[in-house]
Every structure is written in structure tokens, then in C-alpha cells.
Amino acid sequence: MTARSSEDSRGATRSGSVRFLQWLFLTSVVMTTLTLCAVHAPSRIKLLGLFAIAYGLLAGWNTGQLAHITGIHSRRIVAIVSFAVIIAGQVGMAVESYRLYHRFHAAELRRLYQSDPMASLMKHIPVPKQLGDQAQLKTTLEQNRQERDRKLAVLIRRKTSFSAYLRNRVSSLRLSQPWAVLLWAVDMALASAAGTFFAVRVANGNMPK
Question: Are 47 and 183 in contact (CB under 8 A)?
Fold first, then answer.
């Protein structure tokens, strides 16, 4: 009797582990898809605060549904995992959004640099013989070009930094960098809290499917 109980216990543990891993895998796939969709959603629906909370609730509903389907009903486990994956999803969303922001604005700054008449002049200016030392003139022009390239690289780093991206998110509010970072953190916390609460409710069958 004891041996059979022990075997049943081990079988239940293995079954629980398999269900948990299934839940994690399915949740990861769904969260990755949801995050990519959120990144590429139209800008007009990305309302400050509301979009993050809507993302959190949708992520929580999906996480809770998958937990319910796979038989994960522990409130503590569902809460911990849901909070972690929703935070991770929002970090991933910020990273991908920043990548797109950096690529666009860096290309725009390079385009403006290339269209600068002075930059074009420095590339194609002929070297007149009457100016004396042609090698020295070429060296000066090359040094000027390198200096401009260096300043462009510094400008790109400053204008396309992650803090610049966060300020751009709240450009309508004209917030400084610390407040922009704080608002992003508050967005993530609210979205994760709302999504976690929703996930626990759905996982235990307390919300409509």
C-alpha cells in the first residue's frame, strides 16, 4: 500500500511538472507573439498608460487561460509566473521599440548629414594647384571630414539613446529624463499587477473564458 502510494505520488509529481512546462512553453509563445503585435500596433492606439494596462490585461488573460487549460491552479505559482512573464514582455516590447526608434532616427540623422552642402563640398572639392601644398590641403579636408563624422556619431548616440527613446514616449508631456524613466517603470508595474490579478482569476475559473 505504501509502495503504491509512493508511486502514485511520484507519478503525480511528474505529471505536474510536465503540465507546468507545457504551460511555460505555451505562455512564452503567446507572450512573444503578443509583444511583437504590440510593438507594431498603430501609434494612434498607444495611449500613455492605457495601452500598457490593456497589454497587461490581455497578457494576463492569455496566461490564466493557458494555466486553466493545462491544469495549473496554484494561485501563488500563477501569480509569480504571470508577473514575471508580463514584466519580461514589457521589457521586450521596450527593447524592440527602441531598436526601431534607433534605426529610424540614426538613418534620418545620417541622411541630413549627407544632404549637408558643406559635407558634399568637402567630398568633391577640386584641389587647385595655385594653393600650394596639395597634400596638406587634402590632409586638412580629410581631418575635417573625420571630425564631422565623429560629431555625427556623438550626435547619433545622444539623440538615439534609450533615455532619448523614453523621453520621446512622453514627448507630449515634456518630461525630463528621470520622470520619463519613472513613468515607464510605473506603466510596467501597473500593467503587471493588473495582468497578474486577471491571470489568477482566469486560471481558477473565476472569469469568463
Answer: no
State if pTM tops 0.85. no
Phi, psi of 9 (to 5 degrees): -65, -45
CA-closest candidate to residue 192, choices 66, 63, 20: 63
pLDDT digits (tens, 9 = 90+) for 97-133: 999 988 988 888 888 777 665 555 555 555 555 555 6
What DSSP designation does 190 have? H
Q: Which stretches of the chain drop beneath a pLDDT of 50?
A: 1, 3, 7-8, 208-209
Q: Which residue has the cell 503567446?
A: 30
Residue labelled with grid coordinates 565623429: 150
3-state secondary structure of 73: coil
Polymer length in residues for the chain = 209
